[in-house]
Design goal:
With 571 residues, the protein is of the alpha/beta class. It is built from 18 helices and 20 strands. It folds into two domains: 269 residues, Nitrilase/N-carbamoyl-D-aminoacid amidohydrolase (4-Layer Sandwich), CATH 3.60.110; 201 residues, Rossmann fold. The strands form four sheets. The protein has a seven-stranded mixed beta sheet with strand order 13-12-9-8-7-6-15, covered by helices on one side. Strands 5-4-3-2-1-14 form a six-stranded mixed beta sheet, with helices on one face.
């Protein structure tokens, strides 16, 4: 029996910031070395940040990434480090370097390259294959195999092959993006892989926001029976240190009813023969599992914080209407950036209700953020006067409604330009799906916080805010009043759309599950409503293409995750 001390460096890298990423890696490495760890693992492509996308098409960037890896390797001492980087050898590879004693001891090249959903790895990398044989690294007397992200999702992939070749522990480094419910699925999958291979498994994931993607961390360690040994928190940087007891597993493998695998012995690289001796075992760390609402909310906070800060902004501005969407965006922004960095603008028109204005001010006071009022009536009246000769004889319609929204968008951008604040848009996924928003109006902004959150889930998140605070942050009136854009007298959303309780299930099926119109009708949904809604989704693709990026939290978000043609005759 061998007790190996492992550190999983759940860090927040920035794509392209090679110096900053090296600094984070070295700082975590020093902590692991000081704690007497035998090995510390860093996320997938930790040197470059993940995903680097077309940056890897620049030869200079790849060369700089190799120089950065050399700096990390030179920093290493006894504790071995597994570090993700871009390898270059006639082609590019998504790779992991095993570093110790100031040098790179070996390299593993990712075998299974995902090329679905948000992943485009086949665009950039060549997979490792049989001409690139596996190596096992003896670290602290334990035979360690290396794998990268997708490699571990296949039941017959590299983990199983390395275990059959003698690996007792597998280090799996990841850039695994978040979507609601994924953490539980991922944990069950990893436990199964470890148990099936009779091989301990250490999974490390980055924790950051990168454009539309959020990476949730949740690094974990499993023993050879698939039992969870340690788990890091979601959405927080952390150096998870734990001891893994490595016991002989040949008896379990001999008795496996699926039969024995007889792989050829693999090349073995000696790193360290004995583990570091410790008087006491490392404390057990099993971070709690958050509720579904807390998980979703925390993902929005992390995605917003990293997008704003990593793009050089300190402050944001939000159109505070008193409605539920701007309310939740303001709450997320405060938790992401702090109240001193969030600015609300109330822009009432002739159709704004007194209750909405009051709700906006009540929210601002409870959150501790600045709010100012800029009425749009003077500009709206001027536009109507200016356009009156051209509109003579035409009744008021959507044109006048959109004018108000575009005036508000212009006002927000003026504040952004003057004070350097990023505009956060407040549209939700339900509205974006059916085009129930004004292009160049309420779609104007730098980041769309809830663009992947259906309207019904927005209500859940608002209740979560109140429950978490243990007091009324969001007025009950915000949760109970009928949703309205307030662009005409007594306007309500359900005058233009089905109730969101009817709309959202159809959108889930059509957008996230890729069901056809006919299939959704067969599931029992009203035919007329389904045909109308799916048509609205299709014809508004052009509008969504012109919207800002936002946090992806579902299995399929608008943006790089869902790529349908604008010109599209299929119905």
């Amino acid at each position: 029996m061998t007790r190996l001390r492992i550190a999983l460096a759940q860090i927040n890298p920035t794509v392209g910031d090679l110096d900053g990423n090296v600094a984070k890696i070295c700082a975590a490495y020093d902590q692991a070395e000081e704690a007497g760890c035998d090995i510390v693992a860093f996320p997938e492509l930790a040197i470059t940040g993940y995903p680097p996308e077309d940056l890897v098409l620049k030869p200079g960037f790849v060369a700089d990434n190799l120089a950065a890896l050399a700096k990390v390797a030179a920093r290493t001492r006894r504790c071995a480090a597994v570090v993700g980087y871009v390898a270059s050898d006639r082609d590019l590879y998504n790779a992991a370097a095993v570093c110790s004693a100031g040098e790179v001891m070996g390299t593993y090249r990712k075998r299974l390259l995902p090329n679905y959903a948000v992943f485009d790895e086949a665009r950039y990398f060549t997979p490792g294959d049989a001409s690139d044989p596996y190596e096992l690294y003896v670290i602290g007397g334990v035979k360690v195999g290396i794998s990268i992200c997708e490699d571990v999702w296949s039941p017959t992939g590299p983990l199983a092959e390395q275990a059959a070749g003698g690996a007792e522990l597998n280090i799996n480094i990841n850039g695994s993006p978040f979507h609601a419910g994924k953490a539980g699925t991922r944990e069950r999958m990893l436990a199964t892989r470890a148990a099936d291979a009779s091989c301990a498994l250490a999974y490390v994931n980055q924790v950051c926001g990168q454009d539309e993607l959020v990476f949730d961390g949740g690094s974990m360690v499993f023993d050879a029976d698939g039992e969870l040994v340690a788990r890091a928190a979601l959405f927080q940087e952390e150096l998870l240190i734990t001891d893994v007891v490595i016991e002989p597993v040949y008896r379990k493998r001999l008795l496996d009813p699926r039969g024995r695998r007889t792989e050829e012995p693999m090349r073995v690289v000696m790193v360290s023969e004995q583990p570091v001796a410790h008087a006491e075992p490392a404390p057990t760390r099993l971070a709690p599992v958050p509720s579904a609402d807390a998980e979703l909310y925390d993902a929005l906070v992390l995605g917003t914080r990293d997008y704003v800060r990593k793009n050089g902004f300190s402050d944001v501005v939000i159109a505070l209407s008193g409605g539920i969407d701007s309310t939740i965006v303001a709450c997320v922004a405060v938790d992401a950036l702090g109240p001193d960095h969030v600015h609300g603008i109330s822009m009432p028109s002739r159709y704004s209700s007194e209750g909405s204005v009051t709700d906006a001010y009540d929210l601002a006071e409870r959150l501790g953020i600045e709010i100012r009022t800029i009425p749009i009536e003077p500009a709206f009246a001027s536009y109507l006067d200016m356009l009156a000769p051209s509109f003579d004889g035409k009744p008021a319609d959507l044109t006048e409604e959109n004018l108000q929204s575009r005036i508000r968008g212009t006002t927000l951008m003026a504040m952004s330009n003057k004070f350097g604040w990023m505009v956060l848009t407040t549209g939700n996924k339900s509205e974006m799906a059916v085009g129930y928003f004004t292009i160049y109006g309420d779609s104007v902004g730098g980041y769309a916080v809830i663009k992947d959150v259906l309207k019904t889930r927005v209500y859940d998140l608002c209740r979560h805010v109140n429950e978490r605070a243990g007091q009324m942050i969001i007025n009950e009136s915000v949760l109970t009043k009928p949703p309205s854009a307030e662009l005409r007298p007594d306007q309500r959303d359900d005058q233009s759309l089905p109730p969101y309780e009817v709309l959202d299930p159809i959108l889930r099926l059509y957008v996230e599950d890729d069901r056809t119109t006919g299939e959704i009708i067969e599931l029992g949904h009203d035919e007329a409503i389904v045909r109308r809604i799916t048509r609205l989704v299709d014809i508004n693709e052009y509008k969504r293409r012109q919207c800002p990026p936002g946090v992806k939290v579902s299995t399929k978000a608008f943006g790089k995750d869902r790529r349908l043609p604008i010109t599209n005759g299929y119905r």
